[in-house]
Amino acid sequence: MSLKYILPVLAASQAVFAASDCGDTKIKTQSDADGINSCSTVKGDVKIDESYSGTLQLSGVEKITGGLICSGGANVSSISADSLTTVGKAFDLEGLTTLTLLDFPQLDSVGSINWEALPKLQSLSFAKGVTKAGDVSIANTGLNDLNGITLKTVGTFSIQNNRDLRTININNLQNATDLISFSGNYDTLEVDLPNLGTGTNMTFQNISSVSLPSLEKLTGQLGFWGTKFETFSAPNLTQTGDLVFKDNSELSNISMPVLKTVDGGFTIARDDKLSAISLPALQRVNGAIDFSGTFNKLSLGALKDVEGSFNMQSTRGNFSCDDLRKLKNDNVIKGNFKCDATNANPTTSKGGSGTSSSDSSSETSSGAAFMTGANVPVVGLAALFGALAQLL
After folding, report:
1. Which distant-in-sequence residues (6+ apart) come within 8 Å of 30 by Cβ?
2. According to the UniProt record, where is the region Disordered (predicted)?
3. Tens-place pLDDT, residues 199-242
4. Predicted structure pTM score
5. What spatial distance separates the first Cα and last Cα of the chain, rounded to whole Å?
C-alpha cells in the first residue's frame, strides 16, 4: 500500500482512538492527563485521583461537559489548563492542602464552584474571569481576594472561614437567586458589590465595610451580625424580607432613605454606637418591629402597618412612647405593644439584652427565624482539616 493511502488510514484511526478516550477520565499521573490533550471536548467528568502528586497540566482541552473534581489530593501542588473555557458541572476541589496555583487563563463558565480546605491557595490566575456559575462556595482557603471571579448572576454565593480574605469586589454581579453569605473571614474584610440590584437572602458577619449602592429589592433576609463598619447605606433599597442589625459594635449610622416594605421581622439590637434610627419612607412591616439599644432619636413618620408585635426600648431615648402608643390605638400595630424610652436594661421582645454592656443572652432573633452566617457552617472532614492546616 502506498504512503498516500497509509497516512489517511493512520490519521483516521488516531481520530477514532482519541474520540474513544474523550469521556469520563480519571487522572493518576500526568500521562493520564496527556491522554486527553487531543480532546477539545471531554464528554464527562475529569477526576483527579487523591494519589496524584505535583503539578498537573491539561493542554488542548477546551470544554469539560461534566465536572473537574479532586477530593483529598493532599499532594497536588498546582493545576493548570491553558485552553479550558468551560466546566459544565462542578469545579470541585476539597482537601488539596498543598495547592498553591490554579491557572485557568481562558475559563469563563462553570456549572458551580465548591472549593474547601485549600489553605495554601492565595490567589487565582483566571485572566479572562469566570462570568457564569450556578452556585459558588469557597471555604477554608488562603485566598487574599477573589480576583478572577467576575460573575454577572449567581445562585448561592457562600464565602466562609477564609482567614486571609481581605477584599471582595465583584463589579459585574447584578442578581443573586439564593443566599449570599460572608462569615468567619479576615476580620476587616471589605465587600463591594456595586451593581447588585436584586437578590434573595444576604447575611454578613465579621466584615469591616460593605457597599451595596445599587441594591433595590431582596425577597428574603438582609442581616448583619458582629460587623466592624460604622455606616450602612442602601440608598436605593425599597423592599426586603427579614431585616436585622445585631451586635455591630461600631455601627453609628443606618441610611435606608427609600425603604418602604419589610416583608418579615425588623430587628435592631446591641448596636451600642447607634444614636439615631431614621426610616422616613418605611410604611409596612409584615412581621414584628423589635428595636432595643442606646439610641435617643427615632423617626418612623410614614409607618402605616405593622402586622406583628412592637417592642421599642432604649436607655436614653428622646422619643415619645405616647406617639407610638397612638399607632397601636389606631390599629397600625396589630400585635403586642411595648415601649420604654429610658430603660436602664433594655431587652428584645424575647428577653435578650438590648445592649452589649448588659448581660449576654443566647437569644438570637425576634419576630422571625433569622439565619446568620454563623448558622451556615462549613461541614465535613475536609473543612476541619483545612481549618487546622491554616493554623500550622
Report:
1. 54, 55, 56, 57
2. 343-366
3. 999 999 999 999 999 999 999 999 999 999 999 999 999 999 99
4. 0.85
5. 66
**Which stretches of 253-325 are assigned E, i.e. beta strand?**
253-255, 261-262, 266-269, 276-278, 284-285, 289-293, 297-299, 305-306, 310-314
Sequence-ordered list of residues with C-beta below 8 angstroms from that of 3, at least 6 positions apart, any chain: none
Q: Record the cell numbers describing residue 361, joined without a space.
A: 443572652
Cβ of 138: how many Cβ atoms within 10 Å? 24
Question: Residues 67, 92: contact at Cβ < 8 Å?
Answer: yes
With a cut of 80, say whether residue 15 has pLDDT above it. Answer: no
Name residue, grid cell 440590584: 197
Domain ranges of the chain: 29-221, 234-370
Residue entry with cell 493548570: 80
Instruction: Give dist(CA 246, CA 269) in Å, integer.
Output: 5
DSSP code at position 87: E
Q: Residue 371 corresponds to which cell in the numbers above?
A: 439565619
Buried b / exposed e along 10-43 (16+ C-beta atoms within 10 A): eeeeeeeeeeeebeebebeeeebbebbebbeebe
Instruction: Select from 317, 342, 375, 314 the least CA-distant residue to 158.
Output: 375
Number of alpha helices (DSSP H) and beta strands (DSSP E) in the chain:
4, 36
**Residue 392 · residue 117 · CB < 8 Å:** no
Spatial CA neighbour of 226 closest among 269, 180, 275: 269
- Phi, psi dihedral angles at 280 (to 5 degrees): -65, -25
**Residue recorded with cell 474523550:** 22
Say how far apart CA 58 and CA 105 lie, in whole Å: 12
**pLDDT tens digits for range 45-58:** 999 999 999 999 99
pLDDT surpasses 50 at 8: no
